[in-house]
């Protein structure tokens, strides 16, 4: 089965790569196609793809994919635009994120009778971060106004790292592991370690890494055939080192990408290096979503019920969109633009990682939590994937008309 699985995934990757340009302009983006392929080839479909991937294996693939996407997207960020429109991501991270968690907790309290209050808070936190990989069609499309594009990119790059310490504090409290430190001390410990060590790792690795790469290029030390390696290796190094020392690998990858992009801003090789790194990220993304469709989704279908479905729909709409709309009030954004920003809060890789972390815990409501996350991700893949290109075209046309 190992070689059959490899043959199927390789053949699918080859075919999709030949049609990637066409698919990127269609209503069905990569994540939708990858997931549907996994479902079709998996146990509920033809049963040709029989992956024996365990939870830790899926978590590792999802983490590496997210780290690559975060690093590459951050490296391409236009810091000049971001500086002018910093209020958008600032309000999304400082105001909208906690409001989203609070609203998600309230919805869970109304819908789920079998969860404790801490488990409800854990569910809201698991589904609060947005996914940079699923939002790539929006943040990489030049027709989207730059402030909105950079704002969404910056939000998705940091909100998962911010949610990590919150999730770990809630898990520790739910499992009775807070000890004598108290909630405030426990929270401060996680924030300092996750965010602080993540940023420190990015500075220590990305700045000298970018300098060495520029020096190697200027002296013609690097071979053409090795250009796809440095950025990929640097992104994974930032992630892995931060995780090893107790920091947030996601924060390290995103901040490392920003520092790398700033250090190489005017270098001739920057574009080629990032293009090749994005190719590696796309390949990892394909494997992740195929595995999600074949393994996770296929095994979870029987566990769905109306309560989980209702919460998933609320999570993607009211729970996300209402706080975003409210906190962006007062900025130079129309109602349509605020709704656009609120809608494009897709859930994906970060929530998969969080679900695996929670699934390995001793919580009584672990199955309800995991199934709700799976259902939300599935709906997000479908709804955000199908709506991305039409809504981007609509927003671009609206911006063009306003400019006239």
UniProtKB/TrEMBL annotation:
GO biological process, one term: proton transmembrane transport
Keyword presence, Transmembrane: yes
Residues that span the membrane, as ranges: 30-49, 92-112, 186-211, 231-262, 283-302, 308-328, 340-359, 365-388
Keywords in alphabetical order: Antiport, Cell membrane, Ion transport, Membrane, Transmembrane, Transmembrane helix, Transport
GO MF annotation, one: antiporter activity
Gene Ontology CC entries for this record: plasma membrane
Subcellular location as annotated: Cell membrane
Pfam families the record matches: Na_H_Exchanger (PF00999)
Location, primary (coarse class): membrane
UniProt topology in membrane: Multi-pass membrane protein
Domain Cation/H+ exchanger transmembrane: 26-394
Alphabetical list of InterPro entries matching this protein: Cation/H_exchanger_TM, Na+/solute_symporter_sf
Taxonomy, superkingdom: Bacteria
Name of the protein in question: Sodium:proton antiporter
Native organism: Neiella marina
High-level lineage: Bacteria, Pseudomonadati, Pseudomonadota, Gammaproteobacteria, Alteromonadales
């Amino acid at each position: 089965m190992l070689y059959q699985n490899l043959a199927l995934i390789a053949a699918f990757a080859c075919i999709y790569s030949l049609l990637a340009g066409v698919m990127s302009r269609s209503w069905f983006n990569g994540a939708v196609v990858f997931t549907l392929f996994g479902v079709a080839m998996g146990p509920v479909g033809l049963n040709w793809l029989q992956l024996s991937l365990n939870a830790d294996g899926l978590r590792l693939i999802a983490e590496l994919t997210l780290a690559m996407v975060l690093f590459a997207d951050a490296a391409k960020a236009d810091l000049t635009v971001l500086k002018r429109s910093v209020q958008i991501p600032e309000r999304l991270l400082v105001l909208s994120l906690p409001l989203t968690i609070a609203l998600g907790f309230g919805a869970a309290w109304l819908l789920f009778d079998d969860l404790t209050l801490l488990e409800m808070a854990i569910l809201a936190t698991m589904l609060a971060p947005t996914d940079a990989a699923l939002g790539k069609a929006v943040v990489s499309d030049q027709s989207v106004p730059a402030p909105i594009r950079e704002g969404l990119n910056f939000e998705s790059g940091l909100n998962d790292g911010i949610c990590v310490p919150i999730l770990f504090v809630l898990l520790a409290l739910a499992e009775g592991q807070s000890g004598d430190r108290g909630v405030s001390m426990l929270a401060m410990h996680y924030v300092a370690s996750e965010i602080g060590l993540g940023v420190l790792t990015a500075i220590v690795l990305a700045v000298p890494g970018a300098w060495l790469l520029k020096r190697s290029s200027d002296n013609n030390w690097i071979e053409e055939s090795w250009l796809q390696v440095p950025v990929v290796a640097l992104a994974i190094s930032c992630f892995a080192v931060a995780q090893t020392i107790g920091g947030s690998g996601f924060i390290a990858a995103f901040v490392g990408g920003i520092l790398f992009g700033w250090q190489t801003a005017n270098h001739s090789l920057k574009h080629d290096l990032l293009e090749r790194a994005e190719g590696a990220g796309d390949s990892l993304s394909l494997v992740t979503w195929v595995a999600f469709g074949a393994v996770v989704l296929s095994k979870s279908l029987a566990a769905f019920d109306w309560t989980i479905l209702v919460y998933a729909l609320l999570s993607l709409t009211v729970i996300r969109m209402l706080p975003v709309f409210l906190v962006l009030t007062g900025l130079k954004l129309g109602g349509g633009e605020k709704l656009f920003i609120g809608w494009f809060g897709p859930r994906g890789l970060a929530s998969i990682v969080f679900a695996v972390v929670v699934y390995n815990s001793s919580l009584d409501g672990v199955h309800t939590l995991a199934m709700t996350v799976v259902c939300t991700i599935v709906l997000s893949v479908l709804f955000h994937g199908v709506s991305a290109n039409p809504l981007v075209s609509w927003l671009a046309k609206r911006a063009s008309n306003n400019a006239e």
